[in-house]
Amino acid sequence: MRQERDAREADFKAAVTDLHAAKVELATLKAETTGLESRFSELAGRALSDAQEAFLKRADDRFKQSEAASGQSLKAMLQPVSERLQRYEEGVAKVEAERRDAFGELKGQIEQMRVGQERVSSEAAKLVNSLRNAPKSRGRWGEQQLKNVLETCGLSEHTDFNLEVSVAGDDGGRLRPDAIVRVPGGRALVIDAKVSLNAYQDAFGAVDERERQEGLTLHAASMKAHINALGNKAYWSQFDDAPDYVIMFVPGEHFLSAALEHEPGLWDFAFEKRVLLATPTNLIAIARTVSAVWRQERLAADARQIGELGKEMHDRLAVAAEHMRVVGGGLSSAVNRYNDFVGSFERNVLSTGRKFRDLNIETTSKEIPELPPVESLARYGDGPGLIATRVDEAAE
């Protein structure tokens, strides 16, 4: 037992010794391993750093090359876009400059329009005041409107119409219609312009319906008074060539429509007074009709003149043809007598002369020529036409 124990102790000690040696060796290995790890880490870090630096350098070189190539390619690709953008910017700048100029011009025109409207408003106010306060001004304005309508339709003053024609009235006074329009056939239309403005302005400047109706009543009464005055003047009895009515020109559709709105029987009243109410619209129709009739009259006059010229030309041609017929007959008679003379001369003279040669009588070397008759026809007129006539017919 003791030996076994000693053996076990010896084995234990040997094992402890081996363990200690192993621990020492392990510590040594650990120390060496730590050193190797540090060395490896250092070498690995250095290698990685070198590789990374080389990689970055190569990558930087490649990137620079790629960047240069890409830059050129991108520049080439973007060049049209850049040029188009540049043109667009230039166009925008041009449009903007033109817009500023146009805006300046528009602003100037608007200012001129404003000034013009103010001037028109001022002049219109002056005109309204003048027409309201001066009856003669209203009359002149109506006459001018009448003249404008007639001239617009192609009628000419002093040719197709006359203004302010003065005639004697039945009571010994003077009547002066505003216009006398000549109509083909020696007829004439008498036109007088009448303006009823004050009551109309009061009616449409009223602030309530009652004042408006009062103004329209006065306006219709004024129109009725004008109609009655024209009917009493009886212009148709002063002009023999005038129809049995007179035209009352109202220089505005609104004047007449306002009066008819309040007094619908105004048309019938005017008809009874032999007065035809005319606004610029229907007076234009009347004046254009007169102008068209004058054109037809001028065309008819030209046609008559052409007919007279044709008749005169026909008579002159007939006289000339008769002269030619006489001359032709004389020529035919002369040709016939010439042919008779040639025949007689041939039978009685030339035949005897040619016998001298047959009898061997010495003569000159000249031959006696033949005398042919004239076979051409003379053409002369028989009335207005020309016919061919034979010589023997002319001789007969």
Task: Give a topology summary.
Layout: H1 2-133, H2 135-152, E1 161-163, E2 167-168, E3 174-175, E4 179-183, E5 187-193, H3 198-204, H4 209-233, E6 246-249, H5 253-262, H6 266-272, E7 275-278, H7 280-358, E8 378-382, E9 385-389, H8 391-395
What's the CATH class label of the domain at 135-278? Alpha Beta
In percent terms, what proportion of residues is strand? 5-15%
Total strand segments: 9
Q: So what's the overall shape?
A: flat
Looking at the chains present, what oligomeric state does this protein adopt? single chain
Any idea of the CATH topology of the domain at 135-278?
A: Trna Endonuclease, Chain: A, domain 1
For the largest beta-sheet, the strand count, sense and barrel status come to: 5 strands, mixed
| Portion in helices | over 70%
Q: What would you call the structural class?
A: alpha/beta
Mean pLDDT: 76
Spatial extent as radius of gyration: 65 Å
User: Major sheet: order of its strands?
Assistant: 1-4-5-6-7
What's the helix-strand series? HHEEEEEHHEHHEHEEH
- Tally of contiguous helical segments: 8
Structure report:
By secondary structure, the protein is α/β, with parallel strands linked by helices. Among the domains are: 144 residues, Trna Endonuclease, Chain: A, domain 1, CATH 3.40.1350; 82 residues. Strands 1-4-5-6-7 form a five-stranded mixed beta sheet. It has a two-stranded antiparallel sheet with strand order 2-3. It has a two-stranded antiparallel sheet with strand order 8-9. The longest helix has 132 residues. It is flat, with a radius of gyration of 65 Å.
